Amino acid sequence: MEAELNKGYTYRDYVSLNDRKRYELINGELYLxxxxxxxxxxxxxxxxxxxxxxxxxxxxNVYIAPFDVLFGEEEELDVKTVLQPDIFVVCDKxxxxxxxxxxxxxxxxxxxxxxxxxxxxxxxxYNIYERYS
Length: 133
Known about the structure:
Elements: H1 11-15, E1 23-26, E2 29-32, H2 38-55, E3 61-64, E4 68-71, E5 81-83, E6 87-90, E7 96-97, E8 101-103, E9 108-110, H3 118-131
Parallel strand pairs: 4-8
Antiparallel strand pairs: 1-2, 3-6, 4-5, 6-9, 7-8
């Protein structure tokens, strides 16, 4: 399936996209993710390394994008909001579905800002994280 912006997508549609691009799904709308810059990758990698070291012997796991986080009360395939936080921590293993995605808010999220992502991260994604605690 090829992506059409503003179509009213669900997670079912999202996982069937085959145009080899990365998206996030926010309230049924697709948002194309730009390739991260070198500095973005370096910051994410360094933070991930520190967090991985901290949580290594603890019951929580640290994840790095791309890894889907589903937000919503609907059944998984009908969810209309799917984010890929740069880094996140999950302590409640029941939120993980066979390592394919996390259903529900992670315990800790880091979004590394880039010039192309400021509006999405500060407005759209922040509101989602806030809503789902």
